[in-house]
UniProtKB/TrEMBL annotation, chains A, B:
<dbReference type="GO" id="GO:0005975">
    <property type="term" value="P:carbohydrate metabolic process"/>
</dbReference>
<feature type="signal peptide">
    <location>
        <begin position="1"/>
        <end position="22"/>
    </location>
</feature>
<protein>
    <submittedName>
        <fullName>Alpha-rhamnosidase</fullName>
    </submittedName>
</protein>
<dbReference type="Pfam" id="PF21209">
    <property type="entry name" value="Bac_rhamnosid-like_N"/>
</dbReference>
<feature type="domain" description="Alpha-rhamnosidase-like N-terminal">
    <location>
        <begin position="66"/>
        <end position="268"/>
    </location>
</feature>
<dbReference type="InterPro" id="IPR008928">
    <property type="entry name" value="6-hairpin_glycosidase_sf"/>
</dbReference>
<dbReference type="InterPro" id="IPR012341">
    <property type="entry name" value="6hp_glycosidase-like_sf"/>
</dbReference>
<feature type="domain" description="Alpha-L-rhamnosidase six-hairpin glycosidase">
    <location>
        <begin position="291"/>
        <end position="624"/>
    </location>
</feature>
<dbReference type="InterPro" id="IPR035396">
    <property type="entry name" value="Bac_rhamnosid6H"/>
</dbReference>
<dbReference type="Pfam" id="PF17389">
    <property type="entry name" value="Bac_rhamnosid6H"/>
</dbReference>
<keyword id="KW-0732">Signal</keyword>
<dbReference type="InterPro" id="IPR048932">
    <property type="entry name" value="Rhamnosid-like_N_bacteroidetes"/>
</dbReference>
Length: 734, 734
């Protein structure tokens, strides 16, 4: 009965949403092209103190001439409206129609409708809207149709054309050209203003992003706006990172919106003599994603951390996943990789993941690593496999597989005589922002990511039906993995060393390769324990000061059941930023620093981003390792729930999936679960056999029980957790 | 004295041309990018009966983000003006200047000036104009500068960036953006009008090209313009190839210029009731190249052929060398290859050659043959070597060499099990427009072009300092050449057969591979004679009906001294078109056809182009094989002059080179020569030792004498040619 109601409701909604046409048309283009185009637009919005500040890697371009076609079998003749961005022609069954028709008639029967579009400035795109003839991702496209004719006028009959299915962002308004795409905005006011110089500083209450609007602007002279994530920055007219200078000559009062959106909490508004304005406000610009994931617990500070992390992440979720909102606003692969993972536990917005992956990769030929960074090429591969794991979208893997191959070919071409990767001209070995971190020689961390990427290639090759490729990459991955342990594992140190120089291990042990080795599951159980003790929980090994690598460090500890330790670390580290007044999480946080030292980076007093996506990792850690939800088959067809309170009294939250949410409540007495997708296994550690109504409880190992979770049902389980809970064991360095 | 005057004059001219600045600035961009951009613009101007008709191969795009820089050592501070097409920043010694400065001050001393430009719609371009700081091809550019910084703000010190020298078309007006580039036009009138329908047909007297201008246009309704290379075409409102429909509503009389330039001799002007106009005229659009080459002789018909060929060729010399002015107006590699050769004997316009080569090749990755045609990829290679041979411009070879390599890698990747090329999906095997010409199996013609291209690669590798490449390509070329003779030479037929199918020679002998084998000098002297007899002069071998392949057929005969025979053929073939009233030469001419049959092609009554570049080959044949001028070292450092009257009483003409012209007069008694370049060898066949004042005459073989020609001198030689002259020998089929 319930299900029937739901179906009816869905049907009604479907009818309401599509009052005129049976199917939903959208703007379509050559797949990946709008992603590349729009990422160029977005990334070129960066300025530094009024100077245009573009990226330093190759920006690709869309195909400027694209053919679109689809075959239809119409039971009745149909009038079809055509909307095109570009110069175009239209053919029905290969016969061109004169001019640039806006409406065409397609007779009943089987017909092929083709449009060919040229556009250098913007992405060639079409929107086709008939009763049944509509543009969507089922259309085929190509950038070279190879339709030559012979001397008699006959079209070539031996086609070598590769057609691929069209790309789309589901832009469903035919009157709004794709090039006009913009994120929505909403008007917001400052919460406080304070006199400064000839103007004032406006405080918007928290870190935010948008366009400043100046009301009642008038006069002749210069208006200067200095933006600050901190008040100190806004007041520092000669050192703040972003600003606007407007040279005005306005007789009548008018409102003026700044051309570029900016990140700020404070805006220092300084009109010269002769210029005046009534006030300033802002247009908050945001990505209209849905906040689906949630987390709440008995710990108020942790809840605050989660909320600020989610706000931080939302600010950095824009047309694409970007690094930080103040400075770069670029699509960095290492940063985005973490955003993907956070996204799966918050918005579950698959389109933004796809867009970001496509934008990063750009087009062939590969002339450098992604963002020029070796590690960032590897994160890109990892991001694709995760995307498949969380969404089950095999088609995207198949579509992007050729570009995976060409990037891997580029990387394989850069191996040294030992079959390992080391710095070559043009490579940036990033790893992390950390003092005295050696990038010389063959760095173990890079080889580890390389091996993982090859494993990803093997898996994706299978998904793309490339059996030979799967076999090749699998062999390559296995060989490299074996070599890593042969060359970098140091028995005395019981850890992977940081690097090899001149074919010899260096003495240096860092956290990077070791923590990745844990959640990549590359170590034996004994090695894992040794690494945990000798590296992760060893204060003599250089500390990590970026949330970026803390993400993986804490993940590694969680993967080993150290939720209780990690909870304290989270409260210390992210709680530490909150105690300093943070309203969003930072690019870097070193508790040893004082006052305005926290604002500096890159040798600039306000160089640091105070709202950085990689600062938001608690979203991911709490969803995956506390609520404990994780897919075990693509798209959550199967999954596990392993709640771990980590010392909390209770927690509750939702983890989104493509088909609906998984809800978890967990206290020290009861676990409640419901799910809208797949088949789950709830794993419970309990001193006594848990009790659940209407479902079977299986003991899978001593004191560990499993309950099968079916979709659409509600489960409530009474249990009796051991005390201290697993994960609350004091770690050996405390 | 004469020379001194000339130098003085040149100096004065130089001063006049550059009144303000010591050096000449020009717009610069990433090399090849404007060529690709502008060829997209040009090729997308094609329409067919009002429908947009774009190319069917991949159109590439410029790099959208480009960095430009140059280091200067200034003795004095300098004010420098900046003109930029795109969004940009400016840095002096790496320090950005705020905003988009139009004038900057560079202090004295050594400084690096950088501009970084983003432009999706047009090519990122800069024009820098100071007293000594100017933009030109010495600037360096890149599309990925890889200028990352570390956490301290320090710029990466290990650069892997590839900088290349900027491209330019010598556009020297800073106020005219490169994207506004247009060919010049000049107003011209119709020579005759004749009533037709509700309007009239205007006759412009000869084949021409430009924009129709309608004077005094007024009224409400439709105005239709039907263009015709023939009167029949202009009158055929439903079959003419190009037209304009204008839907008007104009209250006051005004002049209106059509948006697209068209090819025509006749324009059929048809206003609907309610529309009226005073008259039409045209804006003739042309490339401002200089007509440097010339030819005149005792034969008036031949002179007419030469003049009409040169006009035909000029019409098809536009932003790039195109195929024909009516229909495609595209950059076809096989067509352009002939244009390059004609150009060396007429305009000697090196920039148009470079542009066309760059536009054809586009960018990596290679996804198809050039224009999708296998033979056309090969002509592209040949065009580069010829360019070097005629101009001596090694830098261009070096610049384009990486794109030569990637195209050759693509081709090498398509060899079959026998190491030969045959049709694969996506390949168009063109060869020629000819009935029943088999493209099946391994076609000998394609292997021959492949071998010649590999030889070109070996030569260009050497010029680009790639010794390994030179060695590799040389070996590959030699092996392929040997294989061609092993597999295709048929001893019984004394010719190369057309193809192999299923590893066996076919019976078919065609002219293509055999005639190319002659001027490629691939045959032994015995084979040459046999091929001449059994193929070239054998009427049983299928005749060639396009001027395109007649070019090579006649070249092969000239190369064997058959100038007399070829002269008659020229008079028959090109003279045949003139007798039919041609004012420019055609895409195809079959003397067996009658009346309007001559206008039809591709199954369309007016499908044939009546003004096709490949119709202009007499320019090349007369310059190279009659005046007999040919470089023997790159850029005419050395050259030969081997005049051959081919039965004419006398001839005279000029052959242009990069450094000035070579003038030749030749009668049956006297040869007069002067040259502005290099060192020449004049070769004279004479019964007695020729007499020349102030120069030595050497007998190099019996009856063949050689005079060394030094630049700047005038030579007059009395000689005594044998009768009949070499080349006047009756060929064995006459």
């Amino acid at each position: 009965m319930k299900n029937l109601k739901k179906i009816l409701l869905l049907s009604i909604l479907a009818c309401l949403a599509l009052p005129t046409f049976a199917q939903k048309a959208s703007w379509i283009w050559y797949p990946g092209d709008f992603d590349i185009y729009m990422s160029n637009v977005m990334q070129n919005r960066r300025t530094e103190r009024g100077s245009f500040f573009p990226v330093f890697w190759k920006m690709d371009s869309h195909y400027v001439l694209v053919d679109f076609h689809k075959e239809f079998n119409l039971s009745q003749p149909e009038e079809v409206k055509l909307f095109v961005e570009g110069t175009y022609n239209v053919k029905i069954n290969g016969q061109a129609i004169s001019g640039f028709p806006k409406t065409i008639q397609i007779p009943a029967g089987k017909h092929k409708l083709s449009l060919k579009v040229y556009n250098q400035a913007h992405v060639p795109a079409v929107f086709v809207q008939g009763k049944t003839v509509i543009s969507d991702e089922t259309w085929l496209t190509t950038f070279e149709d190879k339709e030559w004719i012979d001397a008699s006028g006959k079209t070539s009959d031996k086609s070598g054309t590769t057609f691929v299915s069209a790309g789309s962002w589901n832009l469903s308004d035919p009157t709004k050209l794709p090039s006009q795409y913009k994120l929505p905005t909403v008007a917001q006011s400052a919460v406080k203003t304070e006199k400064a110089g000839t103007g004032y500083v406006a405080d918007f209450g928290k870190e935010t992003f948008g366009f400043i609007k100046v009301h009642g602007l008038k006069g002749k002279g210069r208006l200067s706006l200095y933006y600050g994530e901190s008040k100190e920055e806004a007041l520092s007219t000669d050192k703040c990172e972003t600003l606007d200078y407007l040279d005005l000559d306005i007789a009548q009062k008018k409102d003026s919106v700044m051309p570029l959106s900016k990140a700020f909490r404070y805006v220092n508004f300084q009109p010269e003599n002769g210029v005046s304005a009534d006030s300033i406000s802002m247009l908050y610009e945001y990505s209209p994603v849905t906040e689906r994931g949630s987390f709440k617990s008995s710990d108020a500070e942790l809840n605050k951390i989660y909320d600020v992390a989610k706000y931080t992440f939302h600010l950095n979720t824009r047309e694409f996943f970007i690094d930080g909102i103040k400075r770069d606003r670029w699509v960095w692969s290492g940063d985005a990789y973490q955003s993907y993972l956070m996204n799966y536990y918050s918005f579950f917005d698959a389109p933004t993941v796809k867009r970001t992956l496509l934008a990063q990769r750009g087009k062939d030929p590969v002339t450098a690593h992604i963002n020029t960074i070796m590690d960032y090429s590897f994160y890109w591969f990892l991001g694709i496999y995760d995307y498949y794991k969380f969404t089950g979208d095999q088609k995207f893997v198949q579509d992007v597989y050729p570009r995976m191959q060409s990037l891997m070919t580029y990387i394989d071409g850069r191996k040294n005589k030992n079959g390992l990767l080391e710095w070559m001209p043009g490579d940036w070995i990033f790893i992390d922002w950390a003092d005295k971190l050696s990038k010389d020689g063959e760095v173990s961390f890079e080889q580890l990511l390389y091996a993982r990427s090859l494993e990803t290639m093997a898996l994706c090759a299978k998904l793309a039906n490339d059996a030979d490729g799967a076999d090749k990459y699998d062999k390559q991955a296995k060989a490299l993995k074996a070599k890593i342990f042969e060359l970098y594992w140091n028995q005395n140190k019981s850890a992977l060393v940081h690097s090899r120089i001149d074919d010899k291990q260096t003495d240096n042990v860092t956290r990077y390769a070791n923590m990745f080795g844990i959640f990549f599951d590359y170590f034996t159980p004994e090695q894992k324990l040794a690494v945990k003790k000798n590296v992760l929980l060893n204060n003599d090994v250089a500390k990590i000061t970026t949330p970026y690598m803390r993400f993986y460090e804490l993940e590694a500890l969680c993967a080993m059941g150290e939720q209780s330790y990690v909870l304290k670390e989270m409260k210390n580290y992210w709680g530490g930023m909150l105690k300093l007044g943070a309203t969003s999480f930072w690019e870097e946080y070193n508790p040893d620093k004082k006052g305005t030292e926290h604002l500096a980076m890159y040798g600039r007093p306000f160089g640091k981003s105070l709202c950085h996506a990689w600062g938001a990792s608690p979203i991911y850690l709490l969803g995956k390792y506390y609520l404990g939800v994780e897919p075990t088959a693509p798209g959550y067809e199967t999954y596990t729930i392993t709640p771990n309170l980590g010392g909390l009294e209770w927690m509750e939250g939702k983890v989104p999936t493509a088909n609906g949410d998984i809800s978890v409540y967990c206290s020290k007495k009861e676990i409640k679960v419901s799910s809208a997708t797949g088949t789950g296994k709830l794993k419970i550690t309990s001193k006594t056999k848990p009790v659940v109504k209407g479902s079977e409880v299986k003991e899978v190992s001593k004191g560990v029980y499993e309950v099968t979770i079916e979709k659409g049902k509600q489960y409530s389980i009474k249990y009796n957790p051991p005390s201290p809970l697993k994960g609350e064991l004091k770690s050996n360095t405390e």
